[in-house]
Amino acid sequence: MAAVKPYWKGYLKLSLVTCPVALSPATSDTEKVRFHTMNRATGNRVASRYVDSVTGKEVNTEDQVKGYERGEGDYIIVEEEELDAVALESVRTIEIELFTPRDSVEWIWLEKPHYLVPNDKVGEDAFAVIRDAMRSENVVGISRLVFGQRERAVMLEPRDEGIVLWTLRYGDEVRLEEEYFSGIKAKPEGGLGPLMKQLIQKQTKKWSPVVDPIQDRMLELIAEKKKTMGKTAKRAGAKKDAAAGASNNVVDIMAALKKSLEEGKQRGR
């Protein structure tokens, strides 16, 4: 996958040290198969339009504004110029406000990763000083940044020669795990633990990115559609029922583990 152009440019600032930086998303779904909504009768693409919820008439682009609902059917109109004037420095400057140990920010607070890199040769030294100092202290930087007119908390983590910037979830967006896990009281019986460890060891190997099977099937479907040019494609066969033979939910765990280990030994011959 080729590198994409940065969609944000600004400055990284720590006290009096400032350097120009560029930000790009670390993940992408642009390669995913996407469908348009079509008119089956005409074969034309369906276009969506904004209409007035009361009159039903289409609203021109210049008349579309943002509104905050303060009561049922009662809105405060907010103009684009007013929104632009709100989030000041964090629009173009990532100013590191504090540092914290990396392990103090748990996985659930991390939202989306981005790659942060120097935006010119002159600023590389300042960028490297900030990056290496964080790495040597094993800390991450916490700051703020505006994404799509919304200010987000962000975490800066040194990685290789660059910095990974994570957007962070706010406190009211995270559900506590204790609410879900505290009721689990089961403890494995004596002989199950060692057997499970053996099974895990048998199936342990280096991780590689997982391929999306649905994506591959979609591409195959589209290729078939191209060949037939609108003719109904014959399905390769009925899908297997994943639940076949699983009428009894009560499983003998010890027997299942032993069988799994035995099958692993036979395949290894």
From TrEMBL:
Belongs to the prokaryotic Ku family. The gene is ku. It comes from Pararhizobium capsulatum DSM 1112. PANTHER family: NON-HOMOLOGOUS END JOINING PROTEIN KU. The keyword DNA-binding applies. This is Non-homologous end joining protein Ku. Residues 56-189 form the Ku domain. Homodimer. Interacts with LigD. It holds the Pfam family Ku. With LigD forms a non-homologous end joining (NHEJ) DNA repair enzyme, which repairs dsDNA breaks with reduced fidelity. Binds linear dsDNA with 5'- and 3'- overhangs but not closed circular dsDNA nor ssDNA. Recruits and stimulates the ligase activity of LigD. The keyword GTP-binding does not apply. SUPFAM superfamilies: SPOC domain-like. Keywords: DNA damage, DNA recombination, DNA repair, DNA-binding.
